[in-house]
Amino acid sequence: MVKITINGRQVEAKENAKVLEVCRTNNFIIETVCAHESVSPYGNCRMCVVEITTKDGKNRVVPSCISKVEEGLDVKTNSEKVIAERKLSIQKLMARAPKSEVIKELAKKYGVDSTPLPLEDHQNCVLCSLCTRVCAEVVGVNAISKINRSTDPGALPYTVNFDACIACGSCAEICPTGAISLEDKDDTRTMAWPYQKHDFKMTKCKTCSRFYAPTKQLEYISGKSGQPMEFFAKCIDDR
Ligand code: SF4
Fold it and tell me: Running DSSP on this structure, what letter comes out for residue 207?
C-alpha cells in the first residue's frame, strides 16, 4: 500500500492503482467520457485530468485514468490548472460531437459555450473507443474497429464488421453519447452506428413465442459454452 493525498485528505491506495480509481473509491467525483470500469483505460477524452505533485516536487496535470499512484503523491482534482485543462478537453469534445446533448450538458456545467476548433460531427461519436474496447475485451468479438477511421466530416469514425458482429448491444450500452442505438421489432434487431446500420434476425422462444435474443448472439454463446443450440430454443424465463 502507498499513502497519497487527495484534495488535502490522506488516503491509502494499492501500489500501481490508477489515480482515477483511487479518487473514486474515496468518493472524489471526477466526470469522465472515455473511462469505464469494465474496460482498459484509454486516456483519450482528458476529462479526468488532475494536478499531481510527486514527493520530489514534480508538478504536472495528467489524465488520472492512466496515471499510477506512488508514495507521497499529492493530487488535486479541481485546481485552477485542472479546470482550465478540462475546458480545453470539452472544446475538443464539442468539435467532435457538436450536436451531442451529453457534451452540451458537460460544456454548460463548465461554462464553455463554444469551441475554436473545426467541427467534425460524426453523428454524436466522440471517438472515445469505448465501443471497440467493450467489443474486444468484454464480448471477445472485435467486430468494431478503427480501421479506415478519419476525422473528415461524413467519414466513418469506426468500421463495423457485420459478419463478425453478434448484435449483443454492448457497444450501444456503453456509448456515452448515445451515438450507437438498437431497436428490437418483431423478429429483427436493428443496430445503428454512425453512418452504418444493420438488421439481425432474432430467435423466437418455443414456449412464449417472444423474439428474445439475436440468433447470432445465441450461436456465439452456444459455441463458447458448449451448450447445444436446442438449449436456446426457449427464453431464460421459460427454461
Ligand atoms: S453489437 Fe456487435 S459491434 Fe457492438 S459490442 Fe456487440 S458484437 Fe461488438
Answer: T
> Maximum Cα–Cα distance for the chain, whole Å?
68
Is residue 1 helix, strand or coil? coil
Q: Which residues of 167-186 are buried (b: 16+ CB within 10 A; e: fewer)?
A: bbbbbbebbbbebbebebee
Q: What atom in ligand 1 is closest to the CA of residue 164?
A: 7
Show the ligand 1 pocket: residues with CB < 6 angstroms. 134-135, 139, 141, 143-144, 160, 165-171, 191
Q: Please tell me the distance between residue 191's alpha carbon and the centre of ligand 1 in angstroms.
A: 9
pLDDT tens per residue, range 70-123: 999 999 999 999 999 999 999 999 999 999 999 999 999 999 999 999 998 889
- Strand ordering across the sheet containing 196-204: 181-185, 188-193, 196-204, 211-214
What is the chain's mean pLDDT, rounded? 95
The model's pTM is: 0.92
Classify residue 118 by its DSSP letter.
Answer: P
Fold topology of 2-109 = Ubiquitin-like (UB roll) (3.10.20)
Closest atom, ligand 1, to C-alpha of 134 = 5
Q: Which atom of ligand 1 is nearest to the CA of 142?
A: 8
Q: How far apart are CA 98 and CA 177, in angstroms?
A: 11
Instruction: Compute and round to an integer the Cα radius of gyration of the chain.
Output: 21
Cβ neighbour number for residue 94 with a 10 Å cutoff: 23
- Delimit the domains of the chain by residue range: 2-109, 130-238
